[in-house]
Design goal:
The complex is a heterodimer of chains A (113) and B (110). Chain A has strands at residues 4-6, 10-13, 19-25, 31-38, 42-49, 56-57, 64-70, 73-78, 87-94, 103-104, 108-112. By secondary structure, chain A is mostly beta strands. Chain B contains no helices and eleven strands. Classes of the chains: A mainly beta (113), B mainly beta (110).
Amino acid sequence: DVKVTQSSRYLVKRTGEKVFLECVQDMDHENMFWYRQDPGLGLRLIYFSYDVKMKEKGDIPEGYSVSREKKERFSLILESASTNQTSMYLCASSANGGLETQYFGPGTRLLVL
Amino acid sequence: RKEVEQDPGPFNVPEGATVAFNCTYSNSASQSFFWYRQDCRKEPKLLMSVYSSGNEDGRFTAQLNRASQYISLLIRDSKLSDSATYLCVVNQGGRRALTFGSGTRLQVQP
């Protein structure tokens, strides 16, 4: 079974704080993704990575950065958290980018005060 | 226009009913199509891939119409456990990423 884990299920941060969300997958997948999910807007792609140290912007990268130093780990960084970044953050991985099934982690619900 | 559009619902149906969801996509270069299911406060999980010739998995049937850029999901003999949000998912043709629809919520009632 594919397993994608995320470092926290719930997180509360203050405006201006630096926030790290970590994601680890155990299936040796090349591709990893970060999404945020908001009511009425669905899942929106923030960043993705198709190889170690490689990254591509998704549809809403502003205010975020990512890091992929190891194949199994993909981190999402909020350099200076803002209240409009309060959301559910979902990490996913897949073996072949947009052509194959993506497997999701349980999500991190982030509240920025 | 959104890249993937779905009717948000909710669809409220009695147990045993047949229900159909539709989805349209805008990128004619899309090659891969999926239906995902998301339970309340859980992560999305793959329900089924959608193939050009249409495919069936038990009570679930998926259809693809490339000419009209339209995907459908039919659920027969609905169960209470089918209550969830169903996400239409399309790859972006040329980009190694998927685009998710906002989802259609299904509530099956006893």
